[in-house]
Design a protein that fits this description.
single chain, mainly alpha
C-alpha cells in the first residue's frame, strides 16, 4: 500500500477505536446513573414515609425532610438530563460508525475506473450516496435536538 493509503487506514482504525472507547465509557456512566436512580428512589421513599408519619414531629424537622426531598428530585432531574444527553451521544456514535462504513463502500466504487463500472456498480454507488445523505440528515437532526435542549436549559 502507498503511504497515504496506510495513513488513511490507520486514521480510520484510530477513529473507530475512539468511538468504541467512548461508547464503553457512556455505557458505564449509564449503568452508574441507573444505580444512582435506585438509591435516590429508596431515599425518597424513606423521606415520604417520614413526612406522612409526622405526628408530633417538630416543624424544623419537617422542613429539613422537605428540603432533602426537593434535593433528591433536583438530583434525579439532573441525572435524567444527563442520561438523555448520553443517549443522544450513543445515537451520534452509531451514525458516525454507519457513515464511516458507507464512506468506505463508496470509496471502493469511486476508486474504480469509470469505464469499468457496470450499471449495477453505478446503481450501488447511487444507493450508497442516498444512504449517506440519510445518515447525515439524521446526525443533523440530533445536533438540532441537542441545540434546542441546550437553549431550553438556559
Amino acid at each position: 500500500y502507498p503511504t497515504w493509503k496506510r495513513t488513511l487506514m490507520r486514521q480510520a482504525r484510530e477513529a473507530q477505536t475512539k468511538r468504541f472507547c467512548k461508547a464503553q465509557a457512556i455505557q458505564r456512566r449509564l449503568e452508574e446513573i441507573e444505580v444512582t436512580f435506585r438509591v435516590l428512589e429508596q431515599q425518597g421513599i424513606k423521606l415520604e414515609k417520614l413526612l406522612r408519619d409526622e405526628d408530633g414531629t417538630p416543624a424544623d424537622k419537617k422542613t429539613q425532610w422537605m428540603n432533602q426531598l426537593l434535593y433528591l428530585v433536583q438530583k434525579k432531574n439532573s441525572l435524567m438530563s444527563e442520561e438523555s444527553d448520553l443517549m443522544i451521544t450513543v445515537q451520534e456514535l452509531k451514525l458516525e460508525e454507519q457513515q464511516w462504513q458507507l464512506d468506505q463502500k463508496l470509496r471502493c466504487y469511486m476508486n474504480r475506473e469509470e469505464s469499468l463500472k457496470t450499471p449495477e456498480d453505478r446503481a450501488a454507488e447511487q444507493e450508497i450516496l442516498v444512504q449517506l445523505l440519510e445518515v447525515v440528515n439524521k446526525r443533523n437532526v440530533l445536533i438540532h435536538i441537542q441545540e434546542e435542549k441546550r437553549l431550553s436549559e438556559l
